[in-house]
Design goal:
It is a single chain. By secondary structure, the protein is mainly alpha-helical. It has 2 domains: 190 residues, Ribonuclease Inhibitor (Leucine-rich repeat, LRR (right-handed beta-alpha superhelix), Alpha-Beta Horseshoe), CATH 3.80.10.10; 273 residues, no CATH class. It has 11 helices and 8 strands. It has an 8-stranded mixed β-sheet with strand order 1-2-3-4-5-6-7-8. β6, α3 and β7 form a beta-alpha-beta unit. α3 packs across α4, α8 packs antiparallel against α9 and α9 packs antiparallel against α11. The longest helix has 86 residues.
Length: 519
């Protein structure tokens, strides 16, 4: 381990700049100005070994960094790495680290070297799912069960535990081979068939259990993928959580008075009827949303297919035009090489330039025709999508009117029940036994009626918010879709025009070179 007798190095911007310059320009670094234009965000590799560093710091600008060497320093704590999200390789060997930490953000990490430190527990590595090489030789790992923290990493290819107390246990290789069937190298040696066969016999029950667990894991992941795909489909249709009681339940969230009212039998029956009506209408809206999504997707796919056909037709015409020109231009260039008279050569070159200009004009005309055709297609597509979105939005509005009517009806009946209950409490004529806190509430008329009115206002607000989210999301999707198509086509148009101009300029430059060679 690095002795650290020298003055500790501070990882400040000046130190990092000098180190980066030395690595980027190893032969010229001594003569480069301190303020040379260098961007930490563009550096992919950084070597900071043997620098007597005690604290990892000031690396937040190295956002593209993929490989980092910090070995042979005096580092005691893993920290300051949270912004290095593109890191795939890090060497922290030969330091004074006692705990694995500070690596949670490094989810792309593939190679982790913590050898020759003072680590006694493998921990805090759950997010490192892409680890393929894990080196932790010459540390203080004692428990085999602790090593099993690594069996969750299906990509782990190489593990080095050499020099840890755990390697003194009998048959530890067999134990690891049984629990990590995907591991190929242990302590730089291949886990051969003999070790694996012994593991399969000695730990048969473990392997069977692991296979069952793996099967369960796969089933769980598949169910989760289906659930996520289903949720994405619902969100794409803007009708997520409308295929059940979610909207109804959301009306009564953060409404303790409503929960109190439900303890009165009349309220409970009324709420149940309201829920059934609302859920039935929600499901209709949900199914309609999925149908409309399918219609929109079909329209989008049809438009994209038409656009591909237009582009292919353009490409074919442009290619034919260029092939005819190339054939003619080769003949013209061959004739130019046979002309020795400069005046005649100048005339012929002018003719060739005219032909190039005509090619450019023809290609530009073809480009203009393409752009016009695409603009017409986008305009038609925009109108079709707008009609779909508009019609569905109108349907949504009519359904939410029904939701509000249901809420109004529910509110009026709630008021009637509340008034009747208030009168019964005041007269002492309650037929049923009410909990004490409910009876107390109904001794205060103003409080009860205020609660009923507030609940009604909140219900209407949440209904309106869900309508706005649905209609607004649908409208926003349409705007984003059309703008994305227009921006893409504009970019491609500019690229094609630039290509035409560069090609014709290249042809003219060739003619100028030919003229200069003949003079």
């Amino acid at each position: 381990m690095y002795s650290g007798e020298a003055t500790p190095t501070t990882m400040d911007e000046e130190f990092l700049m000098e180190t980066a310059l030395e690595q980027l320009y190893p032969k010229q670094a001594w003569c480069l100005p301190k303020l040379k234009e260098i961007h930490f965000s563009e550096i992919l590799k950084l070597r900071l070994e043997y620098k007597n560093i005690q604290k990892i710091d000031n690396l937040w600008d190295f956002k593209s960094l993929e490989k980092l060497d910090l070995n042979n320093n005096c580092i005691e704590k893993i920290q300051g790495l949270d912004h290095l999200i593109n890191l795939t390789w890090i060497n922290l060997s030969f330091n004074r680290i006692e705990k694995i930490e500070g690596l949670a953000a490094l989810q792309k990490l593939e190679v982790l070297d913590l050898s020759n430190n003072r680590i006694s527990v493998i921990e805090n590595v759950d997010t490192l799912e892409n680890i393929t090489h894990f080196f932790i030789a010459n540390n203080l790992i004692e428990e085999l069960d602790n090593v099993l923290q690594l069996k969750k990493f299906k990509k782990l290819f190489t593990l080095n535990l050499y020099g840890n107390p755990v390697t003194k246990e009998d048959d530890y290789k067999v134990f690891i081979a049984a629990h990590m069937p995907n591991l190929t190298y242990l302590n730089y040696r291949v886990l051969d068939s003999a070790v694996r066969n012994e593991a399969s016999i000695k730990y048969q029950h473990v392997l069977e259990k692991m296979q069952q667990q793996e099967l369960q894991r796969q089933k769980h992941e598949e169910a989760q993928r289906r659930q996520e795909a289903e949720l994405k489909l619902h969100k794409d249709a803007f009708v997520e959580s409308l295929n059940g009681s979610y909207l109804f339940n959301s009306l009564f969230q953060d409404d303790p008075e409503a929960e109190t009212f439900r303890l009165i039998p009349e309220f409970l029956d009324l709420a149940l009827t309201f829920e059934n009506q609302m859920v039935e209408l929600c499901v209709q809206l949900f199914e309609m949303g999925l149908t409309e999504l399918q219609r929109r997707q079909t329209e989008v796919n049809s438009f994209c297919s038409d656009l591909d056909m237009v582009a292919a037709d353009y490409q074919q015409k442009a290619t034919q035009m260029l092939e005819r020109f190339d054939e003619q231009h080769k003949e013209s260039k061959a004739e130019l090489q046979q002309i020795s008279d400069l005046d005649e050569l100048d005339v012929k070159i002018n003719q060739c330039n005219d032909e190039i200009n005509q090619l450019c004009k023809s290609l530009m005309t073809l480009e203009f025709q393409l752009v016009s055709q695409i603009e017409d297609s986008i305009l038609k597509f925009d109108q079709n999508i707008s009609d779909m979105v508009g019609n569905f939005s109108e349907t949504v509005a009519s359904i939410f009117v029904q939701f509000r009517d249901m809420e109004d009806s529910y509110h009026q009946k709630v008021k009637q029940i509340a008034v009747a209950t208030l009168e019964k409490v005041a007269e002492g004529n309650l037929d049923e036994d009410l909990p004490d806190h409910v009876a107390v509430l109904f001794t205060e008329k103003d409080a009860v009626m205020d609660a009923v009115a507030t609940s009604h206002d909140n219900h209407l607000l949440k209904i309106s918010e869900r309508e706005t989210r649905l209609v607004g999301g649908l409208s926003g999707w349409k705007v984003t879709l059309i703008k994305g198509i227009q921006d893409k086509e504009l970019k491609q148009n500019r690229t094609r025009i630039s290509d035409i101009q560069r090609y014709t300029e290249h042809l003219k430059e060739q003619l100028e070179e030919l003229l200069l060679q003949s003079q």
